[in-house]
Design brief:
Elements: E1 5-10, E2 15-22, E3 26-34, H1 36-39, H2 47-69, E4 78-84, H3 88-105, E5 109-113, H4 114-120, E6 132-137, E7 142-147, E8 154-158, H5 164-174, H6 182-189, H7 212-227, H8 234-260, E9 264-268, H9 275-288, E10 291-293, H10 297-300, H11 304-316
Parallel strand pairs: 1-4, 4-5, 6-9, 9-10
Antiparallel strand pairs: 1-2, 2-3, 6-7, 7-8
The structure holds 5'-O-[(R)-(carboxyoxy)(hydroxy)phosphoryl]adenosine and zinc ion (ZN).
């Protein structure tokens, strides 16, 4: 069978990235330009600055990727892009770039949901086996998704308020860590002890999550300690928070796996880089005897490799967009 090359473009937040992936599984070349250093002075991503940086970077990133792949745009079969969800101004830069390439080179335009990208980061590591449960944990999403076949997504549950990554970043801010705080909390948690008592959120019978109560509990705790003139032990707070946050995820994942007798589980999204979660998922896979896939660190955070990989399966599924395609800051994964 003829090989299929998909060019992917990702610009939903603060990474401008272009990648070429062969047959949905083999990375040919990827270039990522991250804006973290620009946004960290502001304690988070500033949407207006992010869009301007994407405008500045996208052409260079595209050219560098083509050079790295030693390919021309004529050689690719389709152009895939993140159409949403994300920051609207940022998304639009990737959208316009993809539309222009699609129009000028007469290539199909494939719209990819950002979370489908995170899920398909796993197909760069191993062949996906169905039915599977995707545990999506990122800065904007916390969802359990069941897939019976390629490019078919059924949401079992999700967060009722904050996403887990967002909660990590806010807790990090409370203890004075720079954006993005998630990886820093993860590191501190390995040094600290679980000495602070924090509530495990949403212990109910659903597949949903809630992180705003946990976030408030950490903020209140820090505030109360300060008022009493006590120093917060940051490492211990990180360890206590991480243990509760991971337990909240694992409890619902376990319930879904048992209820639905699931044999294949993948973890997806920026928080899939979390060591506490990776260890807990791997323990759970031994306990419940399921096959587990967690992408390596480089595919966990935002990149266009995962968009090109998902784009391949969207292409096989017949998904196409025309020049009326627009970016969406929010959209359900379908
Ligand atoms: O998937 P992603 O790039 O964002 C969305 O698509 O929404 O994930 C970014 C999020 C940030 O909130 C970041 O703090 C978090 O993932 N993150 C982590 C870790 N690495 C990244 N959170 C906890 N532990 C980590 N090791
Ligand atoms: Zn992401």
């Amino acid at each position: 069978m003829k090989d299929t090359y998909i060019l992917g473009i990702e610009s939903s937040c603060d990474e401008t990235s272009v990648s070429i992936v062969k047959n949905g599984t083999e990375e040919i070349a990827t270039v990522i330009s991250s804006q973290i250093d620009i946004h960290k002075d502001f304690g988070g991503v500033v949407p207006e600055i992010a869009s301007r940086e994407h405008v500045k970077n996208v052409t260079m990133v595209l050219e560098e990727c083509m050079e790295k792949a030693n390919m021309k745009i004529e050689d690719v079969d389709a152009i895939a892009l993140t159409y949403g969800p994300g920051l609207i101004g940022s998304l639009l830069i990737g959208l316009e770039t993809a539309k222009t390439l699609s129009f000028v080179y007469n290539k199909p335009l494939i719209p990819v949901h950002h979370i489908a990208g995170h899920i398909y980061a796993n197909s760069l590591v191993k062949k996906l086996e169905f039915p599977l449960l995707a545990v999506v944990v990122s800065g904007g999403h916390t969802e359990l998704i069941e897939m019976e076949k390629h490019y078919s997504f059924k949401k079992l549950g999700g967060t009722l308020d904050d996403a887990i990554g967002e909660c990590y970043d806010k807790v990090a801010r409370v203890i004075g860590l720079e954006y993005p705080g998630g990886p820093k909390i993860d590191k501190m948690a390995t040094i600290g002890k679980k000495t602070y008592n924090l509530p495990v959120p949403l212990k109910d019978d659903s597949y949903n999550f809630s992180f705003s109560g946990l976030k408030s509990a950490v903020i209140n705790l820090a505030h109360n300690e300060k008022q009493r003139g006590e120093e917060i032990r940051n490492e211990d707070l990180a360890a206590s928070f991480q243990s509760v946050a991971v337990e909240a995820i694992i409890t619902k994942v376990k319930k879904a796996i048992i209820d639905k007798n699931i044999k294949n589980v993948i973890v997806a999204g920026g928080v899939a880089a979390n060591n506490g979660l990776r260890n807990a998922m791997s323990e759970l896979s031994k306990e419940l005897n399921f096959d587990l896939s967690i992408p390596p660190m480089k595919y966990c955070t935002d990149n266009a490799t995962m968009i090109a990989a998902a784009g391949y399966y969207a292409y096989l599924d017949g998904r196409r967009a025309d020049m009326t395609l627009n970016s969406k800051s929010q959209d359900e994964l379908k």
